[in-house]
Design goal:
9 helices, 6-stranded parallel sheet, about 290 residues, Rossmann fold, dTDP-4-dehydrorhamnose reductase, alpha/beta, about 40% helix, dTDP-4-dehydrorhamnose reductase activity
Length: about 290
């Protein structure tokens, strides 16, 4: 099977390359310097040249706070880029697996968000990602959106690596405790996407539409940080655990508003045999990998 991957240098893109490397599939992976998805002509040319069986779109503008001032670029990548991929895919009857975000919701729910729940993004990033979902639906018949949240890995910049750095630099840290979500290991998300590719190869069908995939247990950023530090100290990635103080979102203002509650209901994928990842196990595995690169 020929798979075209965008966003190869991001967390998900790098993890997806790792899992495909031990499969029988042929991967054509592109970073933004090789494929600018906001360039419609370039997208059409590369898709026509590669002739993939599936397109996996992991490319995105993800600088959440910067997007508040850089709206044009956020929409160029997250909306127009997705539209360009959708049009090119539709022209050659190629399905698209597209990754989206919990930020399409306003965070005011009291139970896990279902894919069918009303969206109401509170940030430019969330609004641009929702616009991308809508563009995909408008221009492509066979598409599958995977919304995810709180992504971490051994690659790139993420909360886990930031906490490790700050934990080694400071004796005390304040971490927001009133935002709740499910951490998601990019490697597990990559495996889930590959399973969907395998399913499509076997049946030429998928459960088209929008689905959710994330970690299995909700926590707060404060709770996530505490878990990171406990395991990191055991692995000698930290000299000593810093003192953690729980603070409110109001005490840590950011340019972009974060959802207070972004727990996602993954039942539609569970029905297909794709279970939410155990983020505790994944965190431990991720930290073990960071030990190996220390």
């Amino acid at each position: 099977m020929r798979i075209l991957l965008t966003g190869k240098n991001g967390q998900l893109g790098r993890c997806f390359q790792d899992v495909v490397a031990v499969s029988t599939h042929e991967l054509f992976a592109y970073g933004s310097s090789e494929l600018d998805i906001a360039n419609a002509d370039q997208v059409a040319a590369i898709v026509a040249e590669v002739k993939p069986d599936v397109i996996v779109n992991a490319a995105a503008y993800t600088a959440v706070d910067n997007a508040e001032q850089d709206q044009a670029q956020a929409y160029a990548v997250n909306e127009q880029g997705t539209a360009n991929l959708a049009k090119a895919a539709q022209a050659l009857d190629i399905p698209v697996i597209h990754v989206s975000t919990d930020y399409v919701f306003d965070g005011q729910a009291v139970e896990p968000y279902k894919p069918s729940d009303a969206t109401n993004p509170q940030s430019v990033y969330g609004a641009s990602k929702l616009a991308g979902e809508q563009a995909l639906a408008a221009f492509c018949t066979r598409y599958l959106v995977l919304r995810t949240a709180w992504v971490f890995s051994e690659y790139g910049n993420n909360f886990v690596k930031t906490m490790l750095r700050l934990g080694n630099e400071r004796e005390a840290l304040n971490v927001v405790a009133d935002q709740y979500g499910c951490p998601t290991y990019a490697g597990d998300l990559a495996k889930a996407i590959l399973q969907l590719c395998d399913r499509y190869q076997a049946t030429q069908e998928l459960a088209w539409g929008i689905h959710h995939y994330c970690g299995d247990l909700p926590t707060s950023w404060h709770g996530f940080a505490r878990t990171i530090f406990t395991k990191a100290e055991q692995l000698d990635l930290l000299k000593n655990q810093p003192k953690l103080t729980a603070i409110s979102s109001e005490q840590y203002p950011t340019p972009a508003k974060r959802p207070e509650y972004s727990v996602l209901n993954c039942a539609t994928l569970t029905e297909l045999g794709l279970l939410p990842c155990c983020w505790l196990d994944a965190l431990f595995a991720c930290l073990d990998k960071l030990v190996d690169t220390k």
